[in-house]
Specification:
The chain crosses the membrane at residues 50-71. Residues 173-749 form the Choline/carnitine acyltransferase domain. Its main location: mitochondrion. Belongs to the carnitine/choline acetyltransferase family. Residues 1-47 form the Carnitine O-palmitoyltransferase N-terminal domain. By secondary structure, the protein is an alpha+beta fold. The protein folds into five domains: 2-53; 59-135 and 145-156, no CATH class; 179-241 and 646-673, Choline/Carnitine o-acyltransferase (Fumarase C, Chain B, domain 1, Orthogonal Bundle); 247-536, 2-Layer Sandwich (Chloramphenicol Acetyltransferase); 540-643 and 675-764, 2-Layer Sandwich (Chloramphenicol Acetyltransferase). 47% of the residues lie in helices and 13% in strands. Strands 13-7-6-10-11-12-3-18 form an eight-stranded mixed beta sheet, with helices on both faces. Helix 4 packs across helix 5. The longest helix has 32 residues, at 98-129. The radius of gyration is 29 Å and the shape is globular.
C-alpha cells in the first residue's frame, strides 16, 4: 500500500551478519522540518504571549524608558528621588563595580516604573471601556463626551494591537439587579399574556424578587467576582454540551457562497483555493495578526476555530482542541480520506491541494461496509453516538481513523450534488441549497467538527458550523476572509484551474480504514433514521429582497435592524394572527468572554404599532408616530443587551444556581419553559474593505441560516448587503399546522413594502 510505505521513516532486516539498517533520508527530512516548524510556532506563541501580556505598552517602550533613566543617571540627575540608590544598595552584589551596580539599579527602577505605567494604562483602558454612552447617540453625530472618550481610548489602546491584546483590559460582565430583571421580564410578557395569566406571573415574580431571588443573586455576584464571566461557562455547558438531541438542524448553522457568482465550475479547483484561504486565515490566527477592530471586543471565541471537535458523552459532550493539526479529513462518495497540508515544511499551495482533491474524486475504491453512512452518528441523538464511540471506536483501525477525523484542522465534504441558482425556479433552488448546507444527506458532514467545508460538484461552496465553541459572527469573519481571498487574491486561470506550480512528489491522500461490525451498523442506521426524519421535517425558504435596502432605510432616520425587526413583527402577526415571544441575538463581546444576550423584540410598543398597521381607522401619521416609538424601544432593548443589562442570561444563571442548591422556583420554571415562537438573528458584514460592491456588485454572499427553535415557530436569519439588498433565510417545520416558510416569506416582503410606503419614499 502506497500510503503505508510513505509513512515508514526507516526499514531494517535481520541477517546472519547482523541488522541491516536502511534510513529514509526523505522521511527523516520531513521529521526534521516538522520539528522545526513546531518550534517556530512555540516561539511565536511565546513572543505573542509576552507582547499581549505587556499591552498596551510594548518592549520598545521599556527600552525607551530604560535608556532615558540611564541617560539621566549619566547626567547626574536622579528622577527616582533616591529610589535608585536604595535599590542599588540592597539589590546588587558587592562583587560588581560601582558603575555596574548603579546601572542595574537604574534598570530595575526603570522596569518597576514601566510596569506601574502598564498597570495604570490597562486600568484606565478598562475604566474607559465601561462607558457605553455612545450607543444611545445618533450614528455619525457623537456627543462631545463620546469624542473625548474615543480620543482617550485611542491613547490608551496602543498603536498596533494584536488579536488578543485587549483581553486583560476588557471589563467583566455585570450582574443586573434582581428587581430590574424581574420588572423588565414582566414588561416583555405583558403583550403576550391575558390579564389573569399576567397577574399570576407578576405575583410569582414579586415573590421571587423578595424571597428566593436575593439568595440566588448572592451566589451569582460571588461568581462574577471570581470567574472571568458569570454566564459563558454555564451557557456553553448547559445550553450546548449537555443537550442530548441532534446537533444537525437543532444547533448547527450554515453559511452560503456568493449569490450570483461561482468563480470556477471545477470542484477540485474551488476546494483547493478555498482550503488554502482557510489555512492562510489559520496562520494569521496563530500569529494573532487578525485585527481586533476599532472598538475593543473580546476575541476569546477565535481560539477554538480550527483543530477542534465536539466529542460525544453519555451525559454531556466535551470540546477537544489541539494547538495544531497538519491535515484535514475529507469525505467523498462514502469514503474518508486524510490529506496532509504540508510538504517540505511548506503549506501546500492551491494547485497542489487541487491535485490532492482530484485524486480523491478519481479514486474508484468503494466504501467499506458501514463507512458510507458512518457520519450519521454525528447527526443523530448524542447518547447512542457516545456509547458506540466507546464500544466500537476505542482501539485498532477504527480508533486510528476516528482520531484522524477528530484531530483534523477541519472537515471537508466533496459533495456529489450541484447547488446554487440552478434550474427554472431559482427561488426553490436556493431553498434546496440551504437544506443541503444545513443537513445534506445526514451522513455526508461531520457535524461534530468546529466546521465542515462543503464543495459541491459544480464548484459552489458552503459551510456548516458547530455552535458550542463560538457564535456566528466569529465564523462570519472567517467566511468573509475566505470568499474574498479565494476570488480577489488567489484567483483562477482562464481554464478554471488554480494558479501555481504542482509538485508531483507530494504523497497522495490516505484513505482511512474502518472495520465496522454489524452491531455498530445497526446503531448507525438508527441514528440515520432519526436524522432523516428531522431533516425531512425542515421547511426552508431563502430569498433575496431587492426592492430596497439599507440605503432607503437610512432615509427613514431609524436603524436598519429596528426597521427589519418591526417588519418581522408585522409579518408574524399577519401570518398567525397573534404575537409571540421573539428572540433576537445580540453580542456581549464588549465584556471579557462575552457571547450573546437576548433582545425580546416583541414589546408593548411594537404590538401597538402592529395593531395600528392592521387597523384601517388609524391614519398614516398615527402609524408613523407609533413606529417611531417602537423603533426607539427596540434600540433601547438592543443597547441594554449589549451593555450586559439584558434579562435572559441573568434568569438562566439564576435557574442554574437554583438547581445546584436543590431548590425549586415556580417563577424560574415558568420563565425557562416559554417557547420562542420567532427566533431571529442578523448576520453582520464585518470586513467591508474586502469587497468592492461598486465595481463587483455580483460578488456578494447570501449570508447563512439555522433551523427552527420551536416546533411551531419560525427561525429567521437576515443579512443586509450593501445599500440595496437584504437576504432572508426562513425555517420552520412541515409537521406544524401553524407555519409555512414560503407564506411567512411573502408576509415579510409585504411588511417591508408597507413600512416603506408608511414613509412615502419612492422605490429605486
Amino acid at each position: 500500500m502506497a500510503e503505508a510505505h510513505q509513512a515508514v521513516a526507516f526499514q531494517f532486516t535481520v541477517s546472519p551478519e547482523g541488522v541491516d539498517l536502511r534510513l529514509s533520508h526523505a522521511a527523516l527530512k520531513q521529521v526534521y522540518l516538522a520539528g522545526l516548524r513546531s518550534w517556530k510556532k512555540k516561539i511565536t506563541r511565546l513572543r505573542n504571549s509576552l507582547v499581549t501580556g505587556m499591552f498596551p505598552a510594548s518592549p520598545a517602550s521599556w527600552l525607551v524608558m530604560a535608556a532615558a533613566i540611564l541617560a539621566s543617571q549619566a547626567s547626574r540627575l536622579d528622577p527616582s528621588m533616591g529610589l535608585i540608590g536604595k535599590i542599588t544598595e540592597k539589590g546588587a552584589g558587592a562583587y560588581l563595580s560601582e558603575p555596574a551596580r548603579a546601572g542595574l539599579g537604574a534598570l530595575a527602577f526603570a522596569t518597576l516604573l514601566w510596569l506601574g505605567l502598564v498597570v495604570t494604562m490597562r486600568g484606565a483602558l478598562r475604566a474607559l471601556l465601561c462607558y457605553h454612552g455612545w450607543m444611545g447617540e445618533e450614528h455619525g453625530r457623537p456627543s462631545h463626551a463620546t469624542k473625548c472618550w474615543l480620543a482617550l481610548v485611542k491613547i490608551f489602546a496602543g498603536r498596533r494591537p494584536m488579536l488578543y491584546s485587549y483581553q486583560a483590559s476588557l471589563p467583566r460582565l455585570p450582574v443586573p439587579p434582581i428587581r430590574d430583571t424581574v420588572q423588565r421580564y414582566l414588561e416583555s410578557m405583558r403583550p403576550l399574556l391575558s390579564d389573569s395569566h399576567f397577574q399570576h406571573t407578576a405575583a410569582l415574580g414579586r415573590d421571587f424578587e423578595h424571597s428566593l431571588g436575593p439568595r440566588l443573586q448572592w451566589y451569582l455576584t460571588l461568581k462574577s467576582w471570581w470567574a472571568t464571566n458569570y454566564v459563558s461557562d454555564w451557557w456553553e455547558e448547559y445550553v450546548y454540551l449537555r443537550g442530548r438531541g441532534p446537533l444537525m438542524v437543532n444547533s448547527n448553522y450554515y453559511a452560503m457562497d456568493f449569490l450570483y457568482v461561482t468563480p470556477t465550475p471545477l470542484q477540485a479547483a474551488r476546494a483547493g483555493n478555498v482550503v488554502h484561504a482557510l489555512l492562510l486565515y489559520r496562520r494569521l490566527l496563530n500569529r494573532e495578526q487578525i485585527k481586533p477592530g476599532t472598538l475593543p471586543m473580546c476575541s476569546a471565541q477565535y481560539e477554538r476555530m480550527f483543530n477542534t471537535t465536539r466529542v460525544p458523552g453519555v451525559e454531556a459532550d466535551s470540546l477537544q482542541h489541539r494547538q495544531d493539526s497538519r491535515h484535514i479529513a475529507v469525505f467523498h462518495a462514502g469514503r474518508f480520506f486524510r490529506v496532509g497540508l504540508y510538504h517540505g515544511g511548506q503549506l501546500l499551495g492551491p494547485r497542489e491541494l487541487q491535485a490532492q482533491f482530484q485524486r480523491i474524486l478519481d479514486d474508484p475504491v468503494p466504501p467499506a461496509p458501514g463507512e458510507e453512512t458512518l457520519a450519521a452518528l454525528t447527526a443523530g441523538p448524542r447518547e447512542p453516538w457516545a456509547r458506540a464511540r466507546q464500544t466500537y471506536f476505542g482501539s485498532g483501525r477504527n480508533q486510528e481513523s476516528l482520531r484522524a477525523v477528530e484531530r483534523a484542522a477541519f472537515f471537508l465534504t466533496l459533495d456529489t450534488t450541484e447547488q446554487g441558482l440552478l434550474g427554472p425556479e431559482p427561488g426553490r433552488a436556493l431553498d434546496r441549497y440551504a437544506k443541503a448546507l444545513l443537513h445534506g444527506q445526514c451522513h455526508d458532514r461531520w457535524f461534530d467538527k468546529s466546521f465542515t467545508l462543503i464543495v459541491f460538484r459544480n464548484g459552489k461552496i458552503g459551510l456548516n458550523a458547530e455552535h458550542s465553541w463560538a457564535d456566528a459572527p466569529i465564523m462570519g469573519h472567517l467566511w468573509e476572509y475566505t470568499l474574498a481571498t479565494d476570488v480577489f487574491q488567489l484567483g483562477y486561470g482562464v481554464d478554471g484551474h488554480c494558479k501555481g506550480e504542482l509538485d508531483p512528489s507530494i504523497p497522495p491522500p490516505q484513505k482511512l480504514q474502518w472495520e465496522i461490525p454489524e452491531e455498530c451498523r445497526q446503531v448507525i442506521q438508527g441514528s440515520l433514521r432519526a436524522a432523516q426524519a428531522l431533516a425531512d421535517d425542515v421547511d426552508f425558504h431563502t430569498f433575496a429582497f431587492k426592492d430596497f435596502g439599507k440605503g432607503l432605510i437610512k432615509k427613514c432616520r431609524t436603524s436598519p435592524d429596528s426597521f427589519i425587526q418591526l417588519a418581522l413583527q408585522l409579518a408574524h402577526f399577519r401570518d398567525k394572527g397573534k404575537f409571540c415571544l421573539t428572540y433576537e441575538a445580540a453580542m456581549t463581546r464588549l465584556f471579557r468572554e462575552g457571547r450573546t444576550e437576548t433582545v425580546r423584540s416583541c414589546s408593548i410598543e411594537s404590538c401597538n404599532f402592529v395593531r395600528a398597521m392592521t387597523d384601517s381607522a388609524q391614519s398614516a401619521a398615527q402609524r408613523l408616530a407609533l413606529f417611531r416609538v417602537a423603533a426607539a424601544k427596540h434600540q433601547t432593548l438592543y443597547r441594554r443587551a449589549m451593555m450586559g443589562a439584558g434579562i435572559d442570561r441573568h434568569l438562566f444563571c439564576l435557574y442554574v444556581v437554583s438547581k445546584y442548591l436543590g431548590v425549586d422556583s415556580p417563577f424560574l420554571r415558568e420563565v425557562l419553559s416559554e417557547p420562542w415562537g420567532l427566533s431571529t438573528s442578523q448576520t453582520p458584514i464585518q470586513q467591508l474593505e474586502l469587497f468592492d460592491l461598486k465595481n463587483h456588485p455580483d460578488y456578494i454572499s447570501c449570508g447563512g441560516g439555522f433551523g427552527p427553535v420551536d416546533n411551531n415557530g419560525y427561525g429567521v436569519s437576515y443579512i443586509i448587503i450593501g445599500e440595496d439588498l437584504i437576504t432572508f433565510h426562513v425555517s420552520c417545520k412541515f409537521s406544524s399546522t401553524e407555519t409555512d416558510a414560503h407564506r411567512f416569506g411573502a408576509n415579510i416582503r409585504t411588511a417591508l413594502l408597507d413600512l416603506r410606503a408608511l414613509f412615502n419614499l419612492p422605490l429605486k
